Amino acid sequence: MESTKNSLIPSFLYSSSSSPRSVLLDQVPSSNSNAAFQSTNLEKSPSPKTTMASRKNFLIASPTEPGKGIEMYSRDFYAACTVGGILSCGLTHMAVTPLDLVKCNMQIDPAKYKSISSGFGVLLKEQGVRGFFRGWVPTLLGYSAQGACKFGFYEFFKKYYSDLAGPEFAAKYKTLIYLAGSASAEVIADVALCPFEAVKVRVQTQPGFARGMSDGFPKFVKTEGYGGLYKGLAPLWGRQIPYTMMKFASFETIVEMIYKYAIPNPKHECSKGLQLGVSFAGGYVAGVFCAIVSHPADNLVSFLNNAKGATVGDAVKKIGMVGLFTRGLPLRIVMIGTLTGAQWGLYDAFKVFVGLPTTGGAAPVPAIGEAKA
């Protein structure tokens, strides 16, 4: 079993230098009642250096690999979150490529793609079944890059801002921590996504422009230059930053409420399957809010990446203010709700697989050196 898992997960994702059963030694009672514990412990007493390190870190044991674990907030922890983000965003966005394709065409040409059902019918008639997955390569590559930055940097910034605030203020203003951490992460993530998104939209909304990423990317650069790849960055930030802030902050809040009001047992007493179910449910509800908040900017991104030389003013004039908020919204709610729920489910499933706890259900952890076991 161990050899099978090692073939799937790089060894750097595990920290085996210390026992995963390590505890914070300064919290072990010093009374005589502790003698029995000390007499049964066959391991050597830790050196002062080891004791100091254990006060700063707490290891979470992998449920399937005793003796191995990943140190929370270590380099390996952030590497695992980055890999989880790649899997959760890249795979899910690729899977909903047909929905995304119809949505983009409804935004660009509503006269032709009048509804969800008619949109699929038009695509099937004109391009066949294969046409439903047009643009899947830039989708996979772009959202894998975005997911790596989104989830990896979110975990980093959430911890960083919690440490800056201190344990008292981090718990009191936890929602602000979630909002600031997710916004900071998304600024970086969109820089990675933007070139792929530009090519994807052009391939999906202009039949005959290119077959996919391999020929679409050089053709796009030839016609609009490398700067054209980032023409939609500002609207992308306008779409993705509110989306991600809502996605992470609402998810954290919803999951915490589920554990507080809907499940009788504390999170750490729930099975991993139940915890992953909570992650999916919280992600789906969060996704509905995300779709509504970010939809106007999504219409702008699709319009700008499809029309050469177009501006935001042109888009507003062409689509109209009401159209910015409503055109393609029902389909996007279905798509984003399912997408976000699946992303959180996959992300937390990977975290559990490598021996980490699922996301949410508690306030941000205190600063390093002040954490409690």
From TrEMBL:
Location of the protein in the cell: Mitochondrion inner membrane
Membrane topology: Multi-pass membrane protein
Solcar repeat extents: 76-160, 173-257, 274-353
Keywords: Membrane, Mitochondrion, Mitochondrion inner membrane, Repeat, Transit peptide, Transmembrane, Transmembrane helix, Transport
Any one GO MF annotation of this record: mRNA binding
Highest taxon in the source lineage: Eukaryota
The keyword Transmembrane is assigned to this record: yes
GO-annotated biological processes: mitochondrial phosphate ion transmembrane transport; response to salt stress
Region annotated Disordered, chain positions: 1-21
Any Gene Ontology CC annotation: mitochondrial inner membrane
Biased composition (Low complexity): 7-21
InterPro entries: MCP_dom_sf, MCP_transmembrane, SLC25A3/Pic2/Mir1-like
Main location class: mitochondrion
UniProt family annotation: Belongs to the mitochondrial carrier (TC 2.A.29) family.
Function as written in the Swiss-Prot or TrEMBL entry: Transport of phosphate groups from the cytosol to the mitochondrial matrix. Mediates salt stress tolerance through an ATP-dependent pathway and via modulation of the gibberellin metabolism.
Name the UniProt record assigns to this protein: Mitochondrial phosphate transporter
Lineage of producing organism: Eukaryota, Viridiplantae, Streptophyta, Embryophyta, Tracheophyta
